[in-house]
Design brief:
The chain is of the alpha/beta class. Helices cover about 40% and strands about 15% of the residues. Pfam families: Aminotran_1_2. It is a single-pass membrane protein.
Length: about 525
């Protein structure tokens, strides 16, 4: 369950991650739960077909029944018969800043989650354990937002143009210089949307005749960008260096299919922190492999920038490495910086190329100035350029809160995934019936949580995903932990037996001696 890795001199400190296997009876009951739900789903479909139950979901018109259906049948079946039963646990509207606490608009359903109506009641001061507000910059303090207010009054809310036309402002230039300085690279370019930073820029970097090696748990934005590029895509097991090296070796030896020509480029796509597993990329080993096989490395630091590293500079700093070791540094401002958008950073040649060829630069509206100012404000705070040590204190507080929260959950007997230093904390629920029960009972205790199930996770690994923030006080975390302790007993969620890893292929293969 607990894995400390030390591969030669690549790691300067112990690298500890948790992937515990659930008892066999849990897996059996999980499949049984889905089986029972499926049987009743077919029964209800039969009743709807014969008019014995009201059909709430949209149906194909009689004139179109011979057409190819718009959606896959199983997806429709899953949505109407399984997801709909627990739909009330998602898309809950909040009506305040998503800080350490938020206000929630109460809603109820009269038709088993097909529709909702608002009661007019506001649920106050719900402890927020779901937002990616890692450093607590999602805030409404008047003094903190003073500069943002000034920029709003000066520039307004929108640009109404793309970066290549009339959408490049002095605020964008200032922000890009600051990002480059913060990361320790030559240049950077910012974009108005984090998802599009991946999906619209990867196609500009690779194309036909190129090879993408992608981690199997990469975010959808990376997957979409890879598919849009037209490059050949091969998947390696999550954080598994043996799997990655085999693909690299085969790519060098055999080249492209049929022609056997050498690949034009080989690029490795990885994330800093994986948002569903809470695991941290094995960057030292990946960098060693990419140097050995002369590949490029694209690192998505959406969840890690600001959240890890002694001064919040992400996994590169966390492992004590140089930014020059990574060819393309990508990150978003939507999490640690309490704003929106993303960046690509690295060598000046790379950034200049993207300024000309990026689909986002050509077609997408520029980042609005108040958002740019919010990022500048947060980044200057992190760098100490505001004349305080508040940014450094936030980074340290996040680390303390993360380690405390994870340690207490382990002690209680829950199975949690990921690295000890990752503020993303997945708590395994497994059984489909417990997803809804867990989220509803936590809300009754004034705690807002995010629950995730199939198809976003493997069918047997439904989970609650907690996001720890520097803004959480010890009292808030203790309140959540006490509620989890009580609910863990009530719902029988304390499955931990400290068994060996459920991902043995990640940790138990013979260690490679990697070259620098």
């Amino acid at each position: 369950q607990k894995n400390g890795v030390s591969n030669g001199t690549l790691y300067k400190k112990k690298f500890v991650e948790h992937f515990e296997q659930a008892p066999m009876y849990v897996a059996v009951l999980t499949f049984l739960g889905f089986g029972v739900g499926t049987i009743f789903g077919y029964l209800r479909d039969f009743m709807r077909a014969w008019g014995l139950e009201k059909r709430n979901i949209a149906a194909e018109r009689e004139q179109q029944k011979d057409f190819v259906p718009l959606y896959q049948d199983f997806e429709n079946f899953y949505t109407r018969n399984l997801y709909m039963r627990i739909r009330d646990n998602w898309n809950r509207p909040i009506c305040s800043v998503p800080g350490p606490q938020f206000d929630l608009m109460e809603r109820v359903t009269d038709d088993y989650n097909w529709t909702f109506r608002f009661t007019g009641r506001i649920i106050k001061n719900v402890i927020n354990m779901g937002s990616y507000n890692y450093l607590g910059f999602a805030e409404t303090d008047v003094n903190a937002l003073k500069t943002v207010t000034i920029e709003l009054q000066k520039y307004g809310t929108g640009i109404c143009s793309t970066r290549q036309e009339m959408g490049t402002l002095d605020k964008h230039v200032e922000l890009e210089k600051l990002v480059a300085t913060f990361l320790g690279v030559e240049d950077a370019m910012v974009f108005g949307m984090g998802f599009a930073t991946n999906s619209m820029n990867i196609p500009a970097l690779v194309g036909k005749g190129c090879l993408i090696l992608s981690d199997e748990l990469n975010h959808t934005s990376l997957v979409l960008g890879a598919r849009l590029s037209g490059a050949t895509i091969r998947i390696f097991k999550h954080n598994n260096m043996q799997s990655l090296e085999k693909l690299l070796r085969d790519a060098i030896i055999y080249g492209q299919p049929r022609s056997r020509r050498a690949w034009r480029k080989i690029i490795i796509l990885v994330e800093g922190i994986y948002s569903m597993e809470g695991s941290i990329v094995r960057l030292p080993e990946i960098v060693s492999l990419k140097k050995k096989y002369k590949a490029y490395l694209y690192l998505d630091e959406a969840h890690s920038i600001g959240a890890v590293g002694a001064t919040g500079r992400g996994v590169v700093e966390y492992f004590g490495m140089s930014p020059d070791d990574v060819d393309v540094l990508m990150g978003t401002f939507t999490k640690s910086f309490g704003a929106a958008g993303g960046y690509i950073a690295g060598k000046k040649d790379l950034v200049d190329f993207l300024r000309t060829h990026s689909h986002s630069a050509v077609y997408a509206t520029s980042m609005c100035p108040p958002v740019a100012e919010q990022i500048i404000r947060a980044m200057k705070c992190l760098m100490g350029l505001d004349g305080t040590t508040q940014g450094l204190q936030r980074v340290r507080q996040l680390g303390k809160n993360t380690r405390y929260f994870r340690r207490r959950l382990h002690e209680m007997g829950f199975i949690i995934y990921g690295n000890d230093d990752s503020p993303v904390v997945p708590l395994l629920l497994y059984m489909p019936g417990k997803i809804g029960a867990f989220a509803r009972r936590m809300l009754e205790k004034n705690i807002g949580v995010v629950v995730v199930g199939f198809p976003a996770t493997p069918i047997t690994e439904s989970r609650a995903r907690f996001c720890v923030s520097a803004a959480h006080t010890r009292e808030m975390l203790d309140t959540v932990l006490n509620a989890l302790d009580e609910l863990g007993d009530f719902l029988h969620l304390k499955y931990s037996r400290y068994s060996k890893s459920s991902h043995p292929e990640l940790y138990e293969e013979t260690r490679l001696e990697l070259e620098d």
